[in-house]
Amino acid sequence: MSHCIARIFESLLRLLWPAPECHQPPEVPAAPPIAVPPVPGRPPEPVLRGEDSPLVRPYLLAHEQRERARRQRARRRALWLAVHGIDIGPRLIHGVEVVA
To answer: Is 92 helix (H, G, I), strand (E, B) or coil?
Structure first.
């Protein structure tokens, strides 16, 4: 009885599955990429900057703005302290250690 069931399933599976030769995809030669030549008389397209696009993540811009503001505060603080006679300037100038 099990032999009959196996033959029935085998014939059904042969109908449903393709032959072993059909499993291999046909080989297609790779085509070289097509280069579009520039149109004479028209200026080249400008390169898009990330800052100009509204798709820039806001947290990236916020980080840059915070860093810029932090550097500005440090410059102002150094200037204010220099007016009052306190030097907190850089300790290395052109690779030479500066002593106050």
So the answer is: strand
Backbone angles phi, psi at 60, to 5 degrees: -70, -45
CA angle at 95 for the pair 67 and 75, rounded to the nearest 5°: 30
Sign of CA dihedral 70, 71, 76, 80: positive
Highest mean pLDDT among 4-13, 26-35, 54-63, 65-74: 65-74
On whether the pTM is more than 0.90, the answer is no
**By the 8 A CB rule, do 64 and 50 touch?**
no
Using alpha carbons only, what angle is made at residue 98 by residues 97 and 100, rounded to the nearest 5 degrees?
145
With a CB cutoff of 8 Å and minimum separation 6, the contacts of 89 are 78, 82, 98
